[in-house]
Design a protein that fits this description.
The chain has 174 residues and is mainly alpha-helical. The chain is 49% helix and 6% strand.
Length: 174
């Protein structure tokens, strides 16, 4: 089995020293078990991942709200600020922009598929850093860029479900 290891994050988030140490130990263990382990970074359009994820998730949020069994859109106090504002943003996304995001997700998926022609597994830290303290990322925040930025700073590693999944790949996280 060929295992690729990376500390590179799609949006440039810095991987913490503890997360780096644990990944290096896992890579060394895999090597000691006889696996071929190489440090290499997937060549993907990492800069597009966050924008693509936000576009697709915004449209999915709006679709979810529109499909409520009551048949009505929720009032302002019915949902969290982040949900309401994400849906509001989606209302301004046209079909061409949504399709571009879908196509970008597919392109990234194909880039990862090409990477996996050479590697059976991509080993990454589960998180770039420890998560922020409880309450730091608040669904009632008014600033969506701050909300998403806070989340992506500690989660921006290839192995995370939303990034890998946004590319259409199967994922596992623990």
């Amino acid at each position: 089995m060929r295992i690729a290891c990376t500390l590179e994050t799609p949006n440039g988030a810095v991987v913490g020293s503890e997360q780096r140490r644990v990944l290096e130990e896992a890579a060394a263990l895999c090597d000691s078990l006889g696996y071929i382990v190489e440090w290499t970074d997937p060549v993907i359009d990492g800069a597009a991942i966050v924008k693509t994820f936000r576009t697709i998730s915004a449209c999915n949020t709006l679709n979810g709200l529109r499909s409520h069994p009551s048949g009505r859109m929720p009032e302002a106090d019915d949902v969290e600020t982040v949900v309401r504002e994400t849906a509001r943003i989606a209302e301004a996304i046209d079909g061409a922009t949504f399709l571009e995001a879908e196509q970008t997700a597919h392109r990234i998926g194909w880039q990862m598929a090409a990477f996996h022609d050479d590697y059976d597994l991509l080993l990454t830290p589960g998180l770039a850093t420890l998560p922020p303290k409880l309450g730091h990322i608040d669904m009632m925040m008014d600033d969506l860029d701050e909300y998403w930025g806070a989340g992506f700073q500690f989660q921006s590693v290839y192995g995370l479900v939303q990034h890998y999944g946004a590319a259409g790949d199967d994922v596992a996280s623990w």
